[in-house]
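Worked example (supplementary).
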Amino acid sequence: MPYKGAKPVTPFEIAFSWGIVLFLLAAVFTFAFSNIEYGWHWNAIAGYRDKFLKGWVMTLALSGASLVMSLLIGFGTALARRSAILPLRYAAALYVEIMRGTPLLVQIMLFFYVIADAFGVENRYLVGTLILSLFSGAYVSEMIRSGIESISSSQLDSCRAVGLSRIQTYRHVIVPQMMRQILPPLSGQFASIIKDSSLLSVIAVNEFTLSAQEINSYTYSTLESYIPLALGYLILTLPISLFSRSLERRFRYET
Amino acid sequence: MKLELLGVSKSFGERVALADATLDETGFRTLAVIGPSGGGKTTLLRLLAGLDVPDSGKIVINGEELPKDEERLHLYRKSIGTVFQAYNLFPHLTALENILLPLTKVQRLAEAAARETAFSLLERFGLLPQAGSRPAELSGGEQQRVAIVRAIAIRPRFLLFDEPTSALDPEMTAEVLELIEELRSEGRDLIIVTHNIGFAGKVADRCIFMAQNRLVETGSLPDIFREPGTPLLSAFLRKVLKY
Ligand SMILES: Nc1ncnc2c1ncn2[C@@H]1O[C@H](COP(=O)(O)OP(=O)(O)OP(=O)(O)O)[C@@H](O)[C@H]1O
Ligand SMILES: [Mg+2]
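After joint prediction of all chains, the assembly is encoded as:
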């Protein structure tokens, strides 16, 4: 945020400043790449375009499914943390702390090789989506919880005074306001899920990162495999992050 | 209207908010509750509104004892109108939607009938131009008037107000008080907590004075203003009438 009384920034200044930033970035990379004297073989990976695309779509699908599921898990957990039933409340708190306090990689390994195995679940795409949802659900539940708690007690009094039931209060008053509040962090969370899903490559889920790893091992063209990977993630996360920012700004002005 | 209190007490933890209130008022239309800050007025009003339950004692309104279980209290609250000091409206809904929500979801009116009720009330109280505005786009006075319209739209048995104008500047106070006066002249039953002694004198036929978490005095207006029966009330009147 510009400080009060600051001159408005002109479009020319914006373009010029971005120009400087991008130029410096390009300079650093050009210098670095020229130093390693890398022999580029872009045509080596050209034949794997479809494999890249398939992996990219898989990442998008896994992440989208995980976002929806983590929203459900998050809402359930947030409710459980406010429940009058103590064991439920403690279980929810424990779940959140464990998921947020351990690395996703460890969770993937444990869940896939121990828990899913014990319960006879073999589909690694299902397991992958499930772990990602559980991981992300812990973060989402905290967003939802603070969203619910931001509803003032005077509003809850009004709900009771006009005779709304508990469920109606959630449905018509709490959830709509909470959704507006969590939409910016939630879209940020979506970007995180997309990046985190790359770890599912360790259990051989054929997503974007694993595709790049495989292409690299077929072609021995490391940079040619990983640069498209980075760009592929940015194509997804950059618009989401900009969208999240703009939502944040819009909701801030509206209230 | 008839209001009976029998040894009604309410504490919050160690803190006594209302101690042993007993009262038998019959045949009033408008009851004003006045008294110094912290005297227990809001506590009493919330009990009457069925939002809180007394620790002991009972409340009888128009011959009906207020229930103590949440299920029946919920039914009771559906049949009355309560307006608080501020922030009555749901901020994510427009003025119109704020009025429609209880009508359609609580009273189960059909959408068309609910809209008709809402629009005719908005029109009557000069709020039609504000129908599509969210609370943040309304003045404090408009917000309170919409809140009152929302409360009367459900045809409540009576209305409870807790200092409906104390968060407003004088001009807005006037427009809200005018509306309440209009309700009174329609013959609605009102119980109103107010800091505005002049207004209490104007609209109320009976008055309760509360201080130090007790009912100190009751009487008809302006009798108790002219001849306060306790030092507490005369001290209070001296203070508020000075300004
Ligand atoms: N929810 C609560 N928790 C704890 N104490 C409370 C609560 N509500 C009221 N009290 C206490 O009870 C006493 C009476 O409060 P109450 O709000 O009824 O006073 P009031 O007459 O409405 O005052 P005001 O004119 O300032 O609105 C006060 O001492 C207050 O601190
Ligand atoms: Mg009060």
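Two points are worth noting when inspecting this output. The beta strands of chain B are 2-12, 15-26, 30-34, 56-61, 64-65, 81-83, 159-162, 190-193, 206-211, 214-220. The two ends of chain B are 33 Å apart (CA to CA).
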